[in-house]
Amino acid sequence: MFFSHKKPNSRFGAMDMVLFVLLTFWGFIILIPFINAVAISFTSYKEYLDTPLLLFPKAPELKAYRELFKDNRLLYGYRTSLSIILVGVPLSIFLSTSMGFALSRKNWPGRKFLFYFILFTMIFQGGIVPLYLVARSLRLTNTIWSVVLTGGINTFYMILVYNFFQTLPESLIESARIEGAGDWGILFRIIMPLSTPILATITLFYTVDKWNEWFNAMVFIRNASIQPLQLVLRSIVLDSVTGSQTATAVALLERPFPVGIKMAAVMLTMLPIMCIYPFLQKHFTKGMMIGAIKA
Length: 295
Known about the structure:
The protein is mostly helical. The protein folds into two domains: 1-61, no CATH class; 62-291, MetI-like fold, CATH 1.10.3720. Helices cover 72% and strands 0% of the residues. Helix 1 packs across helix 15 (258-291). The radius of gyration is 25 Å and the shape is globular. It starts with 13 loop residues before the first helix and ends with a helix.
C-alpha cells in the first residue's frame, strides 16, 4: 500500500517578497528616530547644527550625560521612581488579581452590577480636584503614597485578569473547595501559579505606568527630594533651556545643548524598561491574547 506525502509549499513567492520589503522598510522607519535620538545624546552642538538627522556621530562625547549625572536630583528621582515601583506594582497586582478573581466567580451575588459599576469608571471619572481633596484630607500629599494609592488599580488591566480567570476550569476551584481550601488559598495556591502569562503582562504594564508616572506626582508632590524621575528630568531639561537662552554663542558651543540633554534624558528613562522587557516578552503576547478572549 502506497501513501503519498505532500510536502508543504515552502516557496518564497512574489507576495512574500513584497511583504518582506514593506516590513523591512517599516522597521527602518521605526528604528531611525530611535537611532537619531541616541546619536544626538552623544553629539556636540556644532555637529547637531550641521546634521540634524544624525545617525552616527563623528566625535561622540558624554557632555549631556555628565550634565544629567552631576545633578543630585537625578539620584533622588531614581530612588523615588524605584520606590514607587517596588511598593506600587505588588499592590496593584494584588488589587487587580483579587478583584478579578472575585468578579469571575459566577456564584458571587451582585458581581455583574459591580463589574459594570467598575467599568463605568473607565468612561466617567470624578476629576483631579476631588482626587486632590481626598488625598489632602487623608494627609497623603507630599508623600509617595499619594502616587501609589491614587494609581492603585487600572480598570483595563483588571478586566484582562478577569477575562483570563474566566477561562480557567470551574472544576479546578470546586475540587479545591472540597479539599477544604478557602478563597484566598484558592487564589494564591492554585489560580496564581496557573496565571503566569497574564501576571507577567500586567506586571509589565504596571511597571511601565509607575516608571512613567509624572502627572499625579506633579499634582500631589511639591518636595523636590521625593519627586519621581520624570519630573526631575523635566526640571533639568527646563533648566538647560533657560540657561541656553541667556548664554552667549561661544558658551553654547562649549556647554551641553538642550536637545542633547533632552535625548540623554530619554535614554536614561527608556533603559530600565528595555532591560526588563526581554524577561517578560515570552509571556506578554500569550497573556494579552488569553486575557482578551471574553468580555
